[in-house]
């Protein structure tokens, strides 16, 4: 055996290899930040006992890997000829450039950190201590000179018991770990109104979506609450659901394997009458989303011409990619538990995300089988069922009617205006149809992977092609292969396209702060909410400061509630499309006028951008 002659060269090579290994451990991905950010970790910041395990193993970029390989070869080649003492005297600086752009499929995989803006600069914050960079210390008293006291957010979290437990659970379940981003709390002028939000935060600190919807309502009602303190106790009672039902849903797939999902139904408030609300089947469904949807539905139903309460629910079941037999078995199992809480005088569900004709048919069939009667009906798309002729179109058409009312108040019309629409489901497609009928130019639709823009605008023939693509479960990208003037953008949203009116119809919180800035810069003047709470709290602030008129979904989306009740109360009548549209337009007009009157009564000027958004909450207190 031959021994190497240069012992110092061997040690130097091993030290350099260790430096490379330590640098590779600091691989971070920045959420929603497309720009390059440098994270510097000086000498002595590493803990020798630091675990190499990370929550999710994200492979580095190929280019970065090639750089490490080339650097490693150069260092090994030069190590034998370099004096070890000389290497020790040179300062070692480890620098890792974060160049990867956050992608949607990674958004739910990191619990240890999140990105926020501090003093105008994007920073990576630790989810445990809410501090960033070198301010994140293990020692609360400082002591920056200690080798092990000052650590990066990633090192601190990976050394914590929380990380080790999360890693153990992840390896056991192979599920994604949801980001625990802190709740954005707006400042309130009134301490009385602030006490309502504080109580909600104390009771449900982890229900992000529900707290956000509570904040929107309290901010809109701040003037009312400040004038009458008795509304505080009323709001506290309103913000606690009357009934929350959580149950397991076992079902068997086509291979004979058993799966278990979780079902939800929240009866939020029945003061005005029986509950009405949607069912959502989506992997992200949880109790917080069920509560925020049912709270929003309660306010929406209160604005309608009918006396109705609000509810919502669903399951974390994903119907995508499932066979008809699998969906049927799941829906039957779901209804086996839920049917006892349903009925025309209790609660009737309607379609929502992931629930369409197929799912509603299976659910309604099992309900009739278990209940022994078919009094009332589930609202939603019909397959040879009696009901109104335009029930499925009601929500989408109502959004366009509402936009037309807002423009008419400004002595304008939809004709010729460029409209950006998100989503490609039932509501989005019906919005496109009615926009074309009014002479507008809808230019975008989107899905979970990106968005499609057609500079020539969609027409009825193109909408038929889009429906064919969605029915065949193909990507919207296929549209651009047929129409040369269109383009599909991966991992992007349509809010940077030049537009006059925006219709977000995809999901909650789809418009964040940067998206709102893009909307303002693209020339948007009116935003009509098709989905419930599509804007984050930060986005709402941006739109308000830019004087963008926002029509909340609780008012603009009331068309679906109106059609459902017309269908239920007069289910033996089949109106013509013209008659139905006339009834729908009249209901939307009544809602719009009531809201504006309430806003005026409470001192909101006609020119104020808050006149619309605040008025719809205020009308429910009058």
Fold blueprint:
Blueprint: H1 7-25, E1 37-41, H2 62-79, H3 84-89, E2 94-98, E3 113-118, E4 121-126, H4 153-158, H5 161-173, H6 191-203, H7 208-220, H8 222-227, H9 230-238, E5 243-252, E6 258-269, E7 275-281, H10 287-303, E8 309-315, H11 324-338, E9 347-351, H12 357-371, H13 394-408, E10 418-422, H14 426-437, E11 441-442, E12 444-447, E13 450-454, H15 460-471, H16 479-482, E14 486-490, E15 501-504, H17 513-521, E16 526-528, H18 537-545, E17 549-551, H19 553-556, H20 559-569, H21 577-601, H22 610-618
Parallel strand pairs: 7-8, 7-9, 10-11, 10-15, 15-16, 16-17
Antiparallel strand pairs: 1-2, 3-4, 5-6, 6-8, 12-13, 13-14
Helix pairs in contact: 1-2, 6-7, 7-10, 11-12, 13-14, 13-20, 13-21, 17-18, 21-22
What does this protein structure show overall?
With 622 residues, the protein is of the alpha/beta class. Helix content is 42%, strand content 15%. The chain is built from 22 helices and 17 strands. The strands form 5 sheets. A 5-stranded mixed β-sheet has the order 5-6-8-7-9. A 5-stranded parallel β-sheet has the order 11-10-15-16-17. A 3-stranded antiparallel β-sheet has the order 12-13-14. Helix 1 runs antiparallel to helix 2 (62-79) and helix 17 (513-521) packs parallel to helix 18 (537-545). The radius of gyration is 28 Å and the shape is globular.
Write a brief caption for the model.
With 622 residues, the chain is of the alpha/beta class.
Strand content: 15-25%
The percent range for helix content is: 40-55%
Q: Given the helix and strand composition, which structural class is it?
A: alpha/beta
The CA-CA distance between the termini, in Å, is 94 Å
Output the number of helix runs: 22
**What is the residue-averaged pLDDT?**
74
